[in-house]
Each structure stands twice: as C-alpha cells, then as structure tokens.
C-alpha cells in the first residue's frame, strides 16, 4: 500500500503507454511486462506541471520489478518479493490513496518473448564490456547485474534489465520522445530496448527480440 502522506495519484496502464496523474503533475512513459517481470520508463514533458529537475519516477514504481494479479487489480513487488503497492481498478476505487489500473493484462499489453533460443545458442551471463561485431558501428555496450549502457563519442544511453525464471530478458522500454544522435547510439540502444533474450554462440553475445529474430551481435571487449 502507499504510505501515508503520498500524493493522491492514478496510474493508467494501457497499450499506448503509462500516465501517472497527481494533484498538479502528470508524468508520461512506457511499460512492458514479461514472465511476471515489469519495467517502466517515465519522463517529464513540458507543460506537465512537474518539477523537471526532480526524479520523474515515483518511489513506489521505481522499486517495482515484478507484477502479480491481485483479485481485480495488481500487486507490484520488488526483487525481494516484498509488496511495494497494491493497485485497484478505477471502477472499484474507493479510497483516495488507491491507484487505477486495467482489470486485466491484455495480450496487446504483454511483451511476447521467443519460446526458446535457436539450437546453436545457449543462455549465459552477459556481464562485461561488449563491442558490436559490425565494425562500422562506433558504439560499445556495458552490462552489469541490473543496468545496460551504450556509449559512443556522442554520449551514452542507459536502461535497466532483469531476467525471468525462464531465462528470458525484460529491458526498460524507450522513453516516449528520445532523439539519439546518429553515431552508434541510434543503432545499438534500440537493440537493448527491444531485447527479450541474451544468447551466446561460442564467444558471441546475440540479442534477440520478441519474435526470436536477431537484433545485433557483440564480441567481448579486451
């Protein structure tokens, strides 16, 4: 449940994105879910009434990594399986500190992942520094236990990732309006936003999308 003192808010999840509305501030974003995992990316837009210098992600949503159905609503849990917040559908909302959500996770809202990797690929730990196999792409990627970062001479783009009990990957969805410079970031960062599995073939790391198609291949740096 939300702690006493939190702002009254509604959180509307639908196939087109996520909108969190508070008394004098509205935050927009995208979301994805897979195998019980949930990931969100939020941003403050001009004219939203929010403090652009502040943290756009509410604490209750920032710590949520898993989602479970809870009657007609959802329960958001953290990585320790502790309850972060209970979300009730708007048509049953009776207390001001409840949040509104769809009553069901429809197929159109879900990230559909491949049923398995091709026979020549295996799952493995993707941590470390990686360089695209295509030497014409001047950007590298660093992966740790919870974050991915793509860097080039133009800057860097980062996001979160998590792995389900079935070995499938959920990465942070892209922001609603992100303009990346065409210097490697624009090519490699979308691979990570779309990745639903990390596979290995010999010494290669290969990112697969929700249809099981290859997004990009990497070799270990150093």
Task: Give an overview in words.
The protein is mainly beta. Helices cover 6% and strands 39% of the residues. Strands 12-11-10-9-8-15-14-13 form an eight-stranded antiparallel β-sheet, with helices on one face. The chain has a four-stranded antiparallel β-sheet with strand order 1-2-3-4, with no helix packed on it. A three-stranded antiparallel β-sheet has the order 5-6-7, with no helix packed on it. A hairpin with a 2-residue loop joins strand 13 and strand 14.
- Oligomeric composition of the shown chains: single chain
Series of H and E elements: EEEEHEEEEEEEEHEEE
Tell me, rounded to a whole number, the average pLDDT: 80
Work out the radius of gyration.
Answer: 18 Å
- What percent strand? 35-45%
The main sheet orders its strands as 12-11-10-9-8-15-14-13
Number of helices: 2
- Helical residues, percent: under 10%
Number of strands: 15
Distance between the termini: 47 Å
Find the structural class using helix and strand composition: mainly beta
Defining key terms:
222 residues; eight-stranded antiparallel β-sheet
